[in-house]
Specification:
Radius of gyration: 21 Å
Number of domains: 1
Helix content: 40-55%
Number of strands: 0
Order of helices and strands: HHHH
Distance between the termini: 48 Å
Strand content: under 5%
CATH superfamily: Chlorophyll a/b binding protein domain
CATH topology: Chlorophyll a-b binding protein
CATH architecture: Orthogonal Bundle
């Protein structure tokens, strides 16, 4: 994930010498998966606020989950849980609680590459190692940007309780000299 102008940037030492390969792989797994969720969330924020959803869900994205009917919410929760359990069985070693001496927890499988859960229905994953590394770097960079962007969208909605587009409209009026509070 190192690109100019920052190059190798690890101020908190997540990949410093002395860290085990499993720790580095686990941190990479977390970064890739959180980046993927943030990329989906950034689209969800904008699309969810642009169109009224099923069940009459509307308004700022931060408020939309509470508007879901309970059965739909529990179906969504079950779907997410099943996907997470599937991901865990693909990439993670089963915990070993037999002995405190060989206590094994939070270990990735040796043959597992962080983020590679085998789901590529459109065939985007390159076969060439260099092309794969390039694509992985782009995914990491886009995921990092999406995590920052979604954090900003979430914070903005918590502060002013307006949709993203409603906030843009508000500030366009402010900067053009129009009172945004007048109808």
């Amino acid at each position: 994930g190192a690109l100019p102008p920052t190059g190798y940037f690890d101020p908190l030492g997540f990949a410093q010498p002395g860290i085990s390969l499993n720790e580095v792989k686990r941190n990479r797994e977390a970064e890739v998966m959180h980046g993927r969720v943030a990329m989906i969330a950034s689209v969800g924020y904008l699309a969810g606020e642009a169109f009224n959803g099923p069940f009459g869900i509307s308004g700022p994205a931060n408020d939309q989950l509470q508007q879901m009917p309970a059965p739909a919410f529990w179906l969504l929760t079950a779907a997410i849980a099943s996907l997470e359990l599937k991901r865990a069985t693909i990439g993670w070693v089963e915990p070993d609680f037999d002995s405190l001496r060989k206590f094994r927890l939070f270990r990735l499988r040796d043959e597992y590459y962080p983020g590679d859960v085998g789901f590529d229905p459109l065939g985007f994953k390159p076969k060439d190692a260099k092309a794969f590394a390039n694509m992985q770097t782009r995914e990491l960079q886009n995921g990092r940007l999406a995590m920052i962007g979604v954090a900003g969208m979430c914070a903005q909605e918590l502060v002013n309780h307006k949709t993203i587009m409603g906030t843009i409209d508000f500030y366009q009026k402010v900067y053009s000299g129009v009172n945004p509070y007048e109808m």
